[in-house]
Amino acid sequence: MLYLTNMANLALEMRSVSKKFGGQTEVSNLTLRIPAKEIYGVVGPEGAGKTSVLALAAGVFMPTKGRVLVNGVDFAEE
Question: What's the pTM value of the predicted model, to 2 decimals?
Fold first, then answer.
């Protein structure tokens, strides 16, 4: 687990994010913190939800539950 003392240095933060399409859950209760100036990769098997997570981070999809913050801004509230 990564602990940061200054949360203002987060480029991306996902707080208990879930995304459903119809009755299908694509992302379930994801919490993720990526510090600024860091590079991360998303890996997993086909159908694991990688594309959905990236679309949530980019604002293409809005979460069914939870919050997505980019540089501390929640675009769902803007």
Answer: 0.84
